[in-house]
Structures are given as C-alpha cells and as structure tokens.
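hi support,

uploading two proteins for the ticket. first:
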Amino acid sequence: MENEKAIVVEDLTKVFGNFTAVDRVSFQVNRGEIFGFLGPNGAGKSTTIRMLCGLLLPTRGAGTVGGYDIIRKQDQIRQHLGYMSQRFSLYQDLTAEENLRFFGGIYGLSPVRVKERTQEALNLVGLWERRGELTGLLPLGLKQRLALASAILHEPPILFLDEATSGVDPISRRNFWDLIYALAAKGVTILVTTHYMDEAEFCDRLVLISAGRLIAQGTPRELKEGVPEQIIAVQPGDRLGEALDLIKKLPRVREAAVFGYGLHVATTHAEEVEEAIKNVLAANHIALHRMARVPPTLEDAFISLVDRAKG
C-alpha cells in the first residue's frame, strides 16, 4: 500500500481563451503522503486543484484521484475527497456543531453517523468544548480548525488544502499542521498549496509550477541541494531597501531578496560578489553588520527555480 498512487496527473492542461493557465502538468502522489504544490500567485495552482476536484474540466490531459477519472467520475471523486480553501465554507450564524451536522447531511451520512462523526471531528480539532458557540464569533484560527473538521467529516482518504492557512497567525498555523501530521499518520493523502516556505518544509515531496508549467519536483532537501548558486547572507546595519537595490545591480549577482532582517544574495562567483558588496555598501555609507555564506533555504530554491524558468 505504501507505493499506491492516490493522485495521478498526466499532461493536465487548461486553456481559457488565449490564456493557458495550466500547461501539460504531470505528477503523482503516493497514498498517505503530504504533497506540496507551490508556485507564485497566478501560477495555476488553484486551477489545477479545481480540475482534480472535478469542479473544472481540463482542456487536455488526464488524471485520477483515488483511482477515479477526473473527467468521467467526478461524483465519486467528491465522495472520497475533502476540500478546504482559504475561504472557509462555513455558515457564520450557525454554531460549530450545527455547521458540522449540516455538512454531514450534505455528505449523505446517516443521522446516527453524523452525531458520531461530529463529536469525533470536533474532538480531533480541539473544539468540542466550544461546539455551542456561533461560528461567526470564533477567532480565525478556530474557524480554520472547524473548516478542517467539516472537510474530514465523511472520513475522506484524500484531502486538498488550497491556501488553507492564508492569513492565520503562526501559532495557529503550527497547531493546524500538527493536525495534518495526525491525519497523514492515519493514511490520509494530503495535497497542500501554500505561499509559506516553512509549511513547504513540512511536506514529504513538492512540485513547483510557474506560469502554468511544472519546473521542479522532489523532496525539500533535493530542491535545496539542486540550487546551483552559492547563497551569501548579508545583514546591513540600516537602509535595507537601498542596500537591496544596490546589490541587485552588481555584476555576477543572479538574484537578491529580503530574507528575515537581512538579504540573501545568489551568485556563482561568491568571492567576487562578496568584495563588491563590501565596496558598494561602504561607498554609500551603509554599515555592514554581517556577511557569510549559508546553505540554500527552500525559499532560495524557489526563487532560483522561478528565475531560471523565466530564462
């Protein structure tokens, strides 16, 4: 069962008029895997998810979810799939418990099973004690947990999380990921789209798309080890934005971006660029607190791969 394919995508393509949103994307997801689907805004992530959910017909290509064809077996896919997006599908004027009972009916669960699963799901996400509170009055992090409970109420073997942690505070995001790990440990396959690189690190494997095309796939470690450039961490004393603009213009700098309180500079000529950084900052009276070569992060890999994909 370990190598069973929960999701198979082959040359999946979606064209809207003259615009190709998804362009011949192919990948496979193993059963019980946490699989990350990354890309810049407008890369085609959500369009791909909607095709896999059976909500949007592909222009070309093929795919299966849970063994069901995404074109011919859409109803079966929905029965075996849990879906959660950043726009939680919750009724604000119902209590947490009432929301789940409503969704249980939509999923076709028997009244007895709805009652059982409502309690089980609320206990899993830590909301049983708050089951009687109006959903509209819950903090965002608890609404997120309630949305997850509604997505897994019918015990789907596959779960899609489409930017599901967007706008949620870091502690709530970490708690949410503890729930995701618990589900994956039970054999649930989870496909995640996210903008957060720390979340991408939690995934077993990742694919990265840009402008609708798949440009890389592998484990987080493999993607980081595949970065051809050396990374120089630069921490100016002040005027971070000005320092970034100056460094970006230097010869041999492939890419430079803000990283935490400093900058990450990518280059294949580290010694030459380090000297140039010292000189340009000194010439513009910007203090240099620290400069050191560091291993590439997943964010560095993401920037490098997207930059190379642009040509």
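and the second one:
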Amino acid sequence: MRTASFLYGVTLVAALFGPATMVSADEATLAAGAGFRRPLAEVATAYEKASGDKILQIYGHMGQVIAQARESGQIALVCGDQSVLKDAKGVTFERFARLGQGKLVVAYRKGITLAKAEDIAGEMIKRVGTPDQANAIYGKAGQQFLERAKLMDKIAPKLVKVSTVPQVTSYIISGEVDAGFINATDAIGADANIGGFVEVGPDLYDPVDVSCGAVAGKPSKAAEGFVAFLTTPAARNILVRYGL
C-alpha cells in the first residue's frame, strides 16, 4: 500500500509538472494556521507557476481555520499541527502530507538580547506576547514551556495574549512587547525586523508535527497536485528555509 501511494504521488507529480503534458487549470482552497503563512504562500506560488492551478488561501488561528473547514464546505486542504487536525470535530481527512517539525522560539525586540529562552524571566523583559493558548499551536507550546521550566508564576503577570503568531511578531517589531512566543518559521520571516530569537528546548513542549490534511470528499486536481508538489525538491527547499 505504501509503495502504491508513493508511485501514485510520483506519477501525479510527473503528469502535472512534466514539460510535455498540458492539463486544464483548476483551483482549491487551503486554510492554515497563521504562523505558517509565509512558507505556505511561497509554496503555493511555486505550485501555481508550475501547474497553472490556483491555490486560494485562508489563515487564522486553528480554531477559526477548523471551524471554516467544517462550516463552509469549500476548503480542500487544512495545514497545521497534525495532532490538532486529527482531533478536529466535524472534519475528516483522507490523508496527511507532512511539512516538517515545528519549532517554538522566544523572539525579542531590537535593543535587547536573550542568550536562552529562560531569560524572559529577567527584569529587562516587562511584557511577553503569546498567541491564543486555547487554540494556537504555539500558544499551547509556550504555556507548556513555562510550566515545565517552572516559570509560569514569574511570567504570567507579563503575558500579553493575542490571537495568532503573526500578531505576536508584529508586537515584537513595534516594541509593544519585549519578547514573545512564536514559531521559528515566523521568526525567520521577520528577519532584521526583530532583535533575534532563541529556540526553546524541544523537551519543554510537546512535538509539533506540521502537516497538510486533504479534506475527505473535496477531491480536485489542484488539491491533489498541491499535496504531490509538497514532496518535490522545490517545495522542500522552501519549507527547510523556513525552519520546517
């Protein structure tokens, strides 16, 4: 079964992206956690250029994303923490395509430097941004870090809660918070707009396996093609560059 699946993926990639094949254009809607917007938008652009298909995109925190997938009936692909996708109520996935391992980081504003994630407990850090701890992957991961590192009591009064990772990043860039919990993907994308970032030890939060799930009953050439494209070197190079 695994061999058959692999051969199907290779055949589909070859059919879509082979130079001698002409296929009609199609479109599919992808919804994803906001913290993965940069790499997924870049991968979608590369796929569109290679295939002629269109990937419509929606980003938000996972609670919103899953609700839209359940209620709209228009979303073919949902990307985020695979454990969250598997537990999603009212949405069934036919299969998953793994994007990579998500990494929790503490990013900080210009003008300060942190040597390690635990330094957010220092006096220079007055405000710490965090995504929604109920629905956002990295909000949950940040909470796990604080609990496992025994820093919750010190950091809780400093927390500034927002909905998504990009909002935390925006607050760090503007200086509204001194530091915040985001993923390596968004930190890499922010680049010189922030002071820098330090990774949180992987033993201090649950693993984040980032995947795209194909929604059952929503087959389309564009959705199938995008999933197959995720296995290509062109897509992998983008994802690896963003820390996945």
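thanks. also noticed: The radius of gyration is 19 Å.
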